[in-house]
Design a protein that fits this description.
With 319 residues, this protein is an alpha/beta fold. It has a single domain, classed as 3-Layer(aba) Sandwich (Rossmann fold). The protein has eleven helices and 13 strands. The strands form four sheets. It has a seven-stranded parallel sheet with strand order 3-2-1-4-5-6-11, with helices on both faces. A two-stranded parallel ribbon has the order 7-10. α7 crosses α9. The longest helix has 21 residues.
């Protein structure tokens, strides 16, 4: 394992978990985050509170689009690997503010790659998304499938990031793994995502709102499994490759709500709304390649994962 790892988006859901695990195993970690106002800064400050206690952790607040800042971080820390998680996230918000999504997710990634070239850093893990598959009719989704039909600006920005990564691998011999995450959930999940929103509402006795009739389905992947996949990628990154990181199982929205009801011990009051533009109908990952090359074997099934999430939520909310 490389022992100097720089994480962009380090105060977010995935980035903060990754930093905690890397620090526990004795790695030097630099975290970068700009505390994007998409959700409350205080949530991210809690996310990194544990890591900040470690002498092996260096945190810098700044923006990946700030060339001087990025070059200063890269040259000062001299990382072996960059784990690039920073991005504007969310399918629906990308329909409203597409330009900002391209500025951060595409131009920001380009500036990371340029800084890697300048500072002679040769290894990158890039966070992509299952959204690049769009409404792919063939399931499960394989890395070999055509991903030229994204149905949201967010999905298109992630596909663009993958293309840039390949270009820099080709031109400058960088080692890059692009990881397509499938609906990550667990403790610290972003407040705009379904499991977090539903849990908050149900605990308060409020209505929950779902888009469609409850039959849309997702391959929900627990944060512990995602972190394992990222760390295996850090250890093995060589050449250029793309991997699905998912649970390889699909769960309907109706089934998800029933699991939340079971572990919250409260019936959900559901309001149904029309399907949203940009939302895909289902996702399910073919993880054959990740199993073979990364030894990626998810262990947290949805039932255990939801119980884990609800237990965590109750613990931080004092009930």
């Amino acid at each position: 394992m490389a022992n100097r790892i720089l994480i962009t988006g380090a105060a977010g859901f995935i980035g903060s978990h990754l930093a905690d695990v890397l620090l526990q195993t004795g790695n030097h970690v630099m975290g970068i985050d700009n505390f994007d106002p998409f959700y409350d800064r205080s949530i991210k400050e809690v996310n990194i509170s544990s890591a900040l206690k470690s002498k092996l952790y260096h945190f810098r607040e700044g923006d990946i689009r700030d060339v001087a800042f990025i070059n200063e971080c890269f040259s000062g820390f001299n990382p072996d690997v960059i784990v690039h998680l920073a991005a504007k996230a969310g399918v629906r918000p990308s329909l409203v503010n597409s330009e900002a999504f391209y500025d951060v997710n595409v131009m920001g990634t380009l500036k990371i790659l340029e800084a890697m070239k300048k500072n002679k850093i040769g290894n990158l893990i890039f966070a992509s998304s299952s959204s690049v598959y769009g409404n792919n009719k063939k399931v499960p989704f394989s890395e070999e499938d055509d991903v030229n039909n994204p149905i949201s600006p967010y999905a298109a920005s992630k596909k663009s990031g993958e293309l840039l990564c390949y270009t820099y691998h080709h031109l400058y011999n960088m080692n890059v793994f692009c990881l397509r995450f499938f609906t990550v959930y667990g403790p610290r999940q972003r407040p705009d995502l379904a499991i977090n929103k539903f849990t908050r509402a149900m605990m308060k006795g409020d209505k929950i709102y779902i888009y469609g009739d409850g039959t849309t389905s997702r391959d929900y992947t627990h944060i512990k499994d995602i972190i394992y996949g990222i760390i295996r990628s850090v250890e093995k990154v060589k050449g250029f490759d793309i991997f699905n990181l998912g649970e390889s199982n699909t769960v309907t929205l109706t089934m998800l709500i029933s699991l939340l009801e079971k572990y919250i011990d409260r019936k959900a009051e559901v309001n149904y709304l029309p399907l949203q533009e940009g939302d895909v109908l289902q996702t399910v990952a073919d993880i054959t390649k990740a199993r073979k090359m990364l030894n990626f074997n998810p262990v947290m099934d949805i039932e255990r994962g939801i119980k884990d999430y609800v237990d965590w939520y109750k613990s931080i909310n004092g009930r």
